[in-house]
Amino acid sequence: MEHQAQLKDKKYRNWVKAGLGLKYVKEGLEPFCDHLVNQQHTAILDKVKRKHNLSTVTCGRCDVRTLQPDHIQTKTRQCPLGQMYCNCLHSRGKISCAKKVCGAIYDEIIQLHASTPPAPYWKNTDAQQWCTEPWSVAKCFINAPGYEHKIRAVEFDCAGLLHVLLNNIEFQQHIKCAITGTDVFSRVRMSRNEIFHSNSMELEDNAVNSYIDDMIELLKDKIEIKHRQESKAAVKKLQKLKQEDFIISTTDEAEIRRVAMAAVKEKEKELEQTITNAGNKLRTTAERERHDIEGKGLAIKSELEQTGQNIEKKLVIKEDESKKKLEQEGIEIEKQLTRKKVEAEEQLEQKLQESKLQLEDIAETKRQAEKSKQKVGNFIYYF
Ligand SMILES: [Zn+2]
Ligand SMILES: [Zn+2]
Q1: Confidence (pTM)
Q2: Spatial distance between the Cα atoms of 190 and 163, rounded to a whole number of angstroms
Q3: What is the pLDDT of residues 86-113, one digit of tens each?
Q4: Ligand 2 centroid distance, CA of 87 (Å)
Q5: What residues have their beta carbon closer than 5 A to ion ligand 2?
Q6: d(CA 88, CA 66)
Q7: How far is CA 31 from CA 37, 337, 369, in A?
């Protein structure tokens, strides 16, 4: 579609209007958020000063990924502040802040986080700026990527500002609206993605009007926002946006296209990161499983080898034992044989002796008988 024709297209004009609406909300909220963020930053540093009895709060050397928090995990290995992924749970390689500052700020950020369990978005923040840049602390409350290099309020978009308000316990006290997830603040925050991530760059009349009505309601929040000049000015702009004859300037249109383009690029980066992470996870898992299997294979192999060696050893021992046993038995048999032989010889000797004696007896008896015979013969001769 030709550009001029596109601008005449109602649905495309609606889409540009919704984008402009978000820009007006950001303008309306920016000074309010900046004020809260600065105030809270001062309060946090004061609290750290009192906690560790410090005269000044300076560091600029700590890295949030390796920072040792002030709090320590419980005996049951839980984070006492209720964080699911906390530096306190993995104390290996963590370094305490040399100035006793950053660990205490880390704890404060967790305690100020409004979600259950608390989940500060540490990837957005640079702890080296915690002592000097209030928004570097505030960024921990933006649960979305893309804010890594932003430091000043003016650099944050409507969704970023709303994240900060919604995810901070203290900031919620400055809002009348109850944050439930479907409240007007949450709806406007989510509309940013719905508008800028839409491929068609088109919106129906009722859709754009519903978005703008939400934006106006938000800026009329009763406690503080509605009383601020910037909010009032933004509401006026939003009301004009709703009028049928609203003229979209080419500058406005170009700006919204640029913002949408940046949002889409950000989304792309986020998706790429998700894909990379998933790929890495898969690779790590596969690698780990391969290692496991190889390890198990090696273990089984070495176990088998060991068993083989044991069997072999046992066989050798058995063989030796059998041999020894046989030898032993042989010796025993030989011994027995010798004993038997000796016994037999002894018996034989005895028998011989006995026979000899018997023979002698017989000889004696014979001699006696001879004598008796002679005597008898002599006797007979005399008669
Ligand atoms: Zn913890
Ligand atoms: Zn430090």
Answers
A1: 0.71
A2: 10
A3: 999 998 999 999 999 999 999 999 999 9
A4: 14
A5: 59, 62, 97, 102
A6: 10
A7: 10, 119, 163
> What value does the mean pLDDT of the chain take?
88
Residue 364 is assigned to a structural domain of this protein? no
52 domain residue, yes or no: yes
Both ends of the chain: CA-CA distance in Å? 187
- What distance in angstroms lies between residue 35's CA and the mean position of ligand 2's atoms? 25
Contact 137, 44 (CB under 8 A): yes
- The rounded Å distance from CA 147 to ligand 2 centre is 22
Looking at the domain assignment, is residue 237 inside a domain?
A: yes
The SS3 assignment for 27 reads helix
Q: How far is the CA of 135 from the centre of ligand 2 (A)?
A: 17
Ligand 1 centroid–CA 97 distance in Å is: 16
Number of separate domains in the chain: 1
Starting from the CA of residue 127, give the closest ligand: 2
Domain around 191: 3-248
Question: Which residue bears the tokens 């004859």?
Answer: 245
Task: Please indicate, yes or no, if residue 71 is contained in any of the structural domains.
Answer: yes
Q: What is the pLDDT of residues 5-42, one digit of tens each?
A: 666 789 999 999 999 999 999 999 999 999 999 999 99
Ligand nearest to the CA of 110: 1
Q: What is the pLDDT of residues 36-63, one digit of tens each?
A: 999 999 999 999 999 999 999 999 999 9
Instruction: Decide: 143 and 113 in contact? Cβ < 8 Å.
Output: no
Q: How far is the CA of 62 from the centre of ligand 2 (A)?
A: 4
d(CA 181, CA 253) in angstroms, rounded, equals 31
Give distance in angstroms: CA of 359 to centre of ligand 2.
Answer: 126
Report CA(169)–ligand 2 centroid distance (Å): 24
The C-alpha atoms of residue 41 and residue 132 are separated, in whole angstroms, by 9
Place of tokens 């949002």: 263
pLDDT in tens, 187-208: 999 999 999 988 889 999 999 9
CA of 105 relative to ligand 1 center, distance in Å: 13
